[in-house]
Fold these 2 entries.
Entry 1:
Amino acid sequence: MGWKISLIIITNPSTISHKELLTGLGLKRFSETGSGSIEEASTISNKKTYIGDYKGQLVIHDWTIPEKIILQNNTPEEKFLASRFPNSEIAVMELVSTINFWGYKILKDGKVLRHRAGDADKGTYFDLGDPLEEEKPLLAQSYINEEGERMYRMEDMPGEEFNEDQVGENFVFEIGRRYLGRQLDMADDFLWETPLTEYSKKPWWKLA
């Protein structure tokens, strides 16, 4: 199964209304249209924004905002989150494993703590900051080849080698452990049971 997910998780969040949050993230016209789970929100054709809470952490699922923050630096959305939640760790994660796109950016104290991303076409194009504890077991299974590329020999698949884009999914799963207490793909309660409020963009002719 190809994994598709696009998340922001904010630890120790200060109180904020959904309206203020959505407006700060650049969504100027929206309306509450229902509810759903992370699993339902992660359908890649889903153009809606979801907001909820998981064990005291603020959770946002959206298919535009996380990608923008990961692929660019100092976007208005990133600046808003860093300034609005100065005492939080902010994790931005996205995974579309059908094209081997993976990425995460983690902000702490208003600064980028870790930033990594890549895909099958371009390889790894962001790798900033010191490795996190959750990354180290995977990185320990890697080496740099003669072309300067990081390759992986996975313990559970001896005799095979993998490019970094082929294990990007594993890294995103492990980063999830930092906030969920277990790998993202194994956090069934998070994926299926986290209550999220659904918001849809309101067409300009329905502003009244």
Entry 2:
Amino acid sequence: MSDWNDEERRLVEAMADMNEDEALAAARRMLLEEGKDPVRVLDLCRAAMDMVGKRFEEGEYFLPELVLAGEMLETIGAIAKPLIKVRPGEERRKLGKVLIGTVHGDLHDIGKNIVTFMLDINGFEVRDIGIDVPVDNFLGAIDEFQPDVVGLSGFLTLAFDSMKETIAAIEKAGRRERLKIMIGGGQIDETVRAYTGADAFGVNAVDAVKLCKHWLGAPA
């Protein structure tokens, strides 16, 4: 926070405080009028999401705030990402591949979308295969995409059984040893992790990024 200028601080605070109009106006001004570094702007978004996540954990924010935060992220990301310039012959090195989807029987995607965004701007190659994803679709995507990490998302309690079923199928198919599996969403805790057989769980997008960086040996 100490290295933010006044304009950057206003963007972060507007996002964290759910001032959508102010946040989007500031982001557009910085990106489209002032030509600010889009990676820097996305880093500011990440910092704002850290604050949103903490307020959610502390009970200050609830699901509607997460929805709004996700919408702001999506809008700013759509403006910023095309502006990221890569020098000729130099591709941005990806930290690793992450496959993510909401398990079958669950249609929630807010948390998944935020995790996908955060992993992307932190340098991971992410493939999001959507919601209500059958076990066979996960297996097919694993074979095609060859991820280092698989993220299973689910908000409803019935998703716990779907996660367990999906992980068991991945193991039975012989794919488990070469990848890590994380779960997240809803009321997931260590008991649910143990029940499903996942390697770890995350309570928010920041946790998901930390897990992936830890598993792939990237700086935190």
